[in-house]
Write a structure and sequence with these properties.
Layout: H1 33-70, H2 72-76, E1 94-95, E2 101-107, E3 110-113, H3 121-131, H4 137-144, E4 151-154, H5 159-168, E5 173-176, E6 179-182, H6 190-193, E7 195-196, E8 202-204, H7 205-209, H8 211-216, E9 221-222, H9 227-244, E10 249-254, E11 261-267, H10 287-291, H11 306-317, E12 325-327, E13 332-334, E14 337-339, E15 348-350, H12 351-356, H13 360-370, H14 372-381
Parallel strand pairs: 1-9
Antiparallel strand pairs: 1-2, 2-6, 3-4, 3-5, 7-8, 10-11, 12-15, 13-14
């Protein structure tokens, strides 16, 4: 019978105990210079360990301070990723008395070139002129070969024009962020609101008169103008021009209680979005004539309207009453001038009759009775001797 014996690997001596271990070898201790080098290395490692321990200790203390002591205060100062807000427009909007938008500012990029980066000026010129037919070949080529570092090619592009330039892929041709003034109602308020130049500086109307105010504020600038009345007044004036084949017309609506101007129209007018453009329907009207505001710049003879001020002055001064009468039967001769009535009654007229019949003779005699000084003082008091501020 065969009996299995336990396997004892590498055990040649069956008399040796199963858990026998050889005696450990004694460590080798270096002597002389080797021992000194070993001690120096141990010292360096010791100090390096202390240094790292100090650094990590400081970091650990700071973490504890931030998390446990400062809490959310430190977190509030940490940088956060936010969606950038669009920059505020450089010019405030203009609205009417009801908040209707009259002028606003929109982003409008411009395209420029760095001629020093243009590899092929002739090819770049050909592509740009094809994209912008309004550009002149010689002018574009002169800019691209000028050797400068910045030249404008076209200002205030439309989104489609910007896309076209992007598709060209010309090295050295880039975009610059700019803003453009837009007037939603076009000609309707052109003489009141005015317009700005290519760099958004006010050139006429409110845009020029309140240029600094519009640049410094962010809230919309509200006018006393009522866009509804503006539309009605313009339609009526245009109808009168058409009916009488008139060259021009002007009108103004004012609140007599507050002095607010509710509507002001001067025809012909212009499109403030394209102030220098010629109207294709009326090319015979010059640009200067279109931009002339007959409400504020025109000089007019008051005529018989002045009789109202004469009567008011005489009544205010006490030199006449409603019961006063003046002989209007004969003309008045002053030097080489003669004052007469167009449809004279040739009789004595009362003050109300002088206004009713628009008597030049009666009004002149009322003014002479009051005297020139009283008349000047009265006209100055009601503001007729200086230009009004609108």
């Amino acid at each position: 019978m065969i009996v299995a014996q336990p396997f004892r690997a590498f055990d040649d001596n069956p008399c040796r105990p199963r858990h026998f271990k050889p005696p450990p070898c004694a460590p080798v201790v270096p002597e002389g210079p080797a021992r000194k080098a070993l001690e120096a290395c141990r010292a360096r490692l010791f100090f390096t360990g202390i240094l790292f321990a100090c650094v990590f200790g400081v970091v650990a203390l700071r973490v504890v301070e931030v998390v446990l002591l400062e809490g959310g205060t430190a977190q509030s100062h940490m940088p956060r990723f936010r969606i950038p807000e669009p920059p505020a427009p450089a010019r405030a909007d203009i609205v009417d008395r009801n908040g209707r938008l009259l002028a606003t500012t929109l982003d409008s990029p411009s395209v420029y070139a760095n001629p020093r980066q243009i590899l092929d000026p002739a090819d770049a010129t050909r592509k740009l002129v094809k994209a912008f037919p309004s550009l002149k070949t010689l002018e574009v080529y002169a800019k691209l070969t000028s050797g400068k570092s910045f030249v404008y090619l076209k200002r205030h592009l439309t989104p489609h024009e910007q896309y076209e330039v992007n598709q060209l892929g010309i090295p050295g041709v880039q975009f610059q962020h700019e803003e453009r003034r837009v007037y939603p109602d076009g000609m309707l308020t052109s003489h009141v609101v005015g317009y700005t130049g290519i760099d958004n500086a006010g050139f006429a109307g409110i845009e020029r008169g309140l240029d600094d105010t519009l640049k410094d504020r962010r809230e919309p600038l509200q006018l006393s103008l009522d866009l509804r009345l503006q539309y009605i007044l313009r339609e009526e004036l245009q109808r009168v021009i058409d009916d009488f084949t008139a060259k021009a017309a002007a009108g103004l609506i004012m609140d007599v209680n507050t002095g607010e101007v509710l509507s002001m129209v001067s025809l012909p007018d212009f499109d403030p979005n394209h102030p220098g453009a010629v109207d294709p329907d009326h090319p015979e009207i010059s640009i200067a004539d279109r931009m002339f505001n007959r409400d504020t710049l025109g000089v007019y003879e008051l005529g018989s309207i002045f009789k109202i001020f004469t009567v008011a002055m005489a009544l205010d001064a006490g030199t006449s009453t409603l019961a006063s009468t003046y002989d209007a039967s004969h003309d008045i001769h002053i030097g080489r001038f003669t004052i007469g009535d167009y449809h004279g009654k040739h009789r004595v007229l009362s003050v109300p009759e002088i206004l009713m019949y628009s008597s030049n003779i009666g009004a002149a005699k009322m003014a002479m009775a009051a005297g020139g000084q009283r008349q000047r003082d009265f006209l100055a008091r009601i503001g007729l001797l200086k230009a009004p501020k609108i």
